UniProtKB/TrEMBL annotation, chains A, B:
Protein name, as recorded: TetR family transcriptional regulator
Species: Candidimonas nitroreducens
DNA-binding region: 30-49
Cited Gene3D superfamilies: Homeodomain-like, Tetracycline Repressor, domain 2
InterPro entries xref list: DNA-bd_HTH_TetR-type_CS, Homeodomain-like_sf, HTH-type_TetR-like_transc_reg, HTH_TetR, KstR2_TetR_C, Tet_transcr_reg_TetR-rel_C_sf
Residue span(s) of domain HTH tetR-type: 7-67
Superkingdom per UniProt: Bacteria
Upper taxonomic lineage: Bacteria, Pseudomonadati, Pseudomonadota, Betaproteobacteria, Burkholderiales
MF terms (GO), sorted A to Z: DNA-binding transcription factor activity; transcription cis-regulatory region binding
Keywords carried by this UniProt record: DNA-binding, Repressor, Transcription, Transcription regulation
Length: 225, 225
């Protein structure tokens, strides 16, 4: 078998197994069920994975470990916090949007992982969180982000992205890339936006005048400082 | 037994069962396990719930059905979309923050629900989503919200709230109410904020001047229009 074909079959197994793990639970799924769902023999299946734990391990590294790697590769937040945050949200969202079922399996079955893998999944998750928090802190220090608690803000942004695994339909009307863009925009607005309570919104003359007064006061303060 | 004591015991059963369902899965948990975890007899447990399916049913109505009810009670978005959105985010976040483990159980075990309950849980979830989407649309029509796809924005906001079930620690340093406030602020900024690409942020003289020019242009347009 050519390596591309092998790779495709491997991906099909991961997908079929993910769907069964979601429908019947990890405990309720056997290697025989997976082979049957794919219309292949058990022997063919065992050629790729020695047991269902090995399939779950592979799913974990595809999703969780990859998320950690992506976070580590993101742009330097010191140089441009907004740009770094935008890139991180997009990368993370793309990963979830391209592996929604796998992500749900991983989130639902962590207790079934062998201890070492559970630990590395936790470490990868921690790495993602730390990286987001670090980027938010850099933006706060640069005076670009208005955030009270960077860790909670990081969880809020991750929640926005991770939740995609529960609603995004890859066959739906909105392409993956558009969703990733919208989430990145949302995250940036959420952390950079002036407080909606103090910053008057709307297009009315009154709101515009109030904004102008605020901006003038800010500029004056800056020039004096 | 007084009714308060009965109520407290009932809540303890729901909590103990939730923890076991999370740790061992719904299939892997028996009524005996729940009784043992609580240090009560099985007879005492059966006085409250006839089987574990009944416990899961109760958890679903506590969380999902309540979320639907809250959404239906929210303020009229036509009157003040921003206020309505703030209230809806806070209410939904409070519900998740006060029932994190229960919420995770419900999300993870929907396939174990009897068909009728599964249907009502889906309907409640749909009601919450519709209500958020409707509020976002009202804000767009009023010119207050800048949102491209209200349904995706609704999912993003719900994701921010729902994800709390996976990270929030009721015994942690940040109180529930503060988290709910932060999430409401985030959501409002995300939907009302000027586009971070066109709206210069930061406190520099240059950014302030560019904002002033923008606001003047907007005001001029408004006065002419």
């Amino acid at each position: 078998m050519k390596s591309t074909r092998r790779e495709l079959l491997r991906e099909s197994i991961l997908e079929a197994a993910s769907n069964l793990f979601i429908q019947r639970g990890f405990q309720g799924t056997s290697m025989g069920d997976i082979a049957e769902a794919m219309g292949v023999t058990r022997t063919a299946l065992y050629y790729y994975f020695r047991n269902k734990e090995a399939i779950l391990q592979e799913l974990v590294s595809e999703v969780t470990v990859m998320a950690g790697k992506l976070a580590a590769q993101a742009a330097d937040p010191q140089a441009d916090p907004a740009q770094a945050l935008r890139q991180m949200v997009k990368q993370h969202a793309r990963l979830i949007l391209s592996h929604p079922v796998q992500f749900r399996v991983v989130e639902r079955n962590e207790e079934n992982l062998p201890a070492a893998l559970h630990k590395s999944a936790q470490a990868a998750r921690r790495q993602v969180l730390d990286r987001f928090e670090h980027t938010l802190q850099a933006g706060m220090q640069a005076g670009q982000f208005q955030v009270v608690a960077p860790k909670i803000a990081a969880f809020a942004i991750l929640g926005m992205c991770n939740w995609c695994a529960w609603w995004f339909d890859p066959a739906g009307a909105v392409p993956q890339e558009d969703v990733a863009d919208m989430l990145a925009q949302f995250a940036l607005r959420a952390v950079t936006g002036a407080d909606e309570a103090s910053r008057p919104s709307g297009n009315s003359v009154d709101a515009s005048l109030r904004r102008l007064r605020e901006d003038l006061a800010l500029l004056e303060k800056r020039l004096q400082g």
